[in-house]
Amino acid sequence: MTSPPGRIPRALDRFHTARPWDHNAHFHPWLLRQLPARLGSALDVGCGSGDLARLLAGRAGRVHGIDADPAITARARALTPASAPVTYTVADAPGGLPDAAYDALTCVAVIHHLPFTEALTAFRDRVAPGGTLVVVGLHRAEDPVDHLLSFASVPLNIVMALLKNRGRRAALPVAMTARARAADMTFSEIAREARGVLPGARLRRRLFWRYTLVWHRR
User: Fold this and answer.
1) Which residues make Cβ contacts (< 8 Å) with residue 77, sequence separation at least 6?
2) Total domain count for the chain?
3) Residue 97 covered by a domain
4) Which long-range contacts (CB under 8 A, 24 or more apart) does 161-169 make?
5) What's the CA gap between 72 and 49, in Å, rounded?
6) Of 1, 63, 127, 144, which one has the greatest count of Cβ atoms within 10 A?
7) β-bridge mates for residue 214, sequence order
8) Angle CA 205–207–209, to nearest 5
9) Distance linking the first and last C-alpha atoms of the chain
10) Does residue 131 lie in a domain region?
């Protein structure tokens, strides 16, 4: 007989398969609040289907989205109005990042797929003076704070799934179709490495199994 702890995760998986929602897009309004109302340029690393890039286009004169997946990049182009100041490039990060400086650089749920310190260094070097780097990432649970946030996220996750799927047929959001990979760095490791590369960076653990990083270049 299967024990209750074994049944609960499987039940939650079935629930969320039937009622998916985009955890990363949930952070987009918060991310935009970290940036000025008007920007000259922005780079979104790991842009996926371009949801965030299109939001950035509402306040930036020029937006560049890059992603390593040609299919999802093509989807981003198809979803983006021709009049929007957004271009998309198929490229790997950090080696394939454009050789330019941007007023804002964003990276949502991607950096755990990359060599962390090398990626942060490349991001730092592409932030223009006065510009801002914003990262939303995933980390591996390590201490009671992580487990408490994880525990609190479960009922909230269920509520969000019900609200976001109310009155519509459930379908996996396009931005969530990329293959996921579990994070292998703890928050403490991330904070230590990040502050070595980005002095003054602000990091915070969040609900929904995420953390955030904000850094301003002076």
Assistant:
1) 50, 88
2) 1
3) yes
4) 161/15, 161/16, 161/19, 161/20, 161/21, 162/19, 164/19, 164/21, 165/19, 165/20, 165/21
5) 6
6) 63
7) 134, 202
8) 80
9) 60
10) yes
Q: What percent of the chain has pLDDT over 90?
A: 65
Q: What is d(CA 151, CA 114) in angstroms, rounded to the nearest whole number?
A: 27
Q: How far apart are CA 197 and CA 120, in angstroms?
A: 7
Mean pLDDT along residues 119-139: 97
pTM: 0.81
Contacts of 205 (CB under 8 A, 6+ apart): 139, 145, 146, 149, 187, 211
Lowest average pLDDT, out of 46-60, 97-111, 112-126, 130-144, goes to: 130-144
Cβ distance 187 to 139 under 8 Å?
yes
Per the structure, the complete domain to which residue 190 belongs is given by 25-139+182-216
d(CA 33, CA 37): 8
Residue 143 one-letter amino acid:
D
CATH number for the domain including 74?
3.40.50.150
